[in-house]
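Notes from hallway chat w/ T.B., transcribed later so I don't forget. T.B. wanted the structure written out for a chain they're using in a teaching module, and asked if we could keep both sequence and structure tokens in one place. Agreed to drop them here.
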Amino acid sequence: MLYFWHYVANRVLTTLSNMFTDLNLTDMETCYKVFRREVVEAILPTLKQDRFGIEPEMTAKVARRGYRVYEIGITYSGRTYEAGKKIGLRDAFKALWCILRYWRWD
């Protein structure tokens, strides 16, 4: 199950992230990320966010350092709130704030 407004919010956040990082990701908030050890060692000490703010922060910091980013397709099955979905409007605003913060000020 994929809620329509969650899809719209994800597309908007991904598009804004792509604009500010000059990447071409299909889903910035995917939560499935794999890094080489040197990338983790470079960005891990600087990470400040948790929850849904960590995705735009990591994306911005990886892009700013010029690391090459690859995407591999995954299969996704959406969940209902009853099944454990935890994201809400507050999380979307937090992600937006993080996109702007880590593009501009960090």
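Follow-up for T.B.: The chain has a mean pLDDT of 87. Might be a good example for the class.
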